[in-house]
Write a structure and sequence with these properties.
This protein is mainly α and about 100 residues long. The chain has one domain. The N and C termini lie far apart (about 45 Å). InterPro entries: VWF_type-D. This is Vitellogenin.
């Protein structure tokens, strides 16, 4: 990252461990618009979420209200495919019995 004066380099070891203005540096686009209220889908709402109160105009204030209303929390959904896979099930059982 470069702001015109400073250069910050992050190694791949920090992937998924850093949270900044563009999410978690995970490579997943779903976290790019992570705000203090949750995830929003519109870049304008995202930007409005980080504005300072004393610097908001009426349009930005409206975008902030929309962001607060429309923000959602990420929901992980897991597949059931592996549960029915016999080889996977056997591997899980063999690892748990050897622990």
């Amino acid at each position: 990252m470069f702001d015109g004066q400073r250069l910050v380099l992050l190694s791949s070891e920090e992937r998924n461990n850093n949270r900044g203005i563009c999410g978690y540096m995970s490579g997943s686009l779903r976290y790019d618009y992570l705000t203090p209220y949750g995830i929003v889908d519109e870049p304008q709402q995202y930007a409005a979420s980080y504005t300072l109160k004393e610097q908001r105009d009426p349009k930005t204030e409206q975008l902030l209200v929309e962001a607060q209303k429309q923000a959602y929390q990420p929901k992980n959904e897991y597949t059931a495919i592996l549960r029915s896979d016999e080889e996977w099930t056997n591997m899980i059982h063999s690892h748990s019995s050897s622990s």
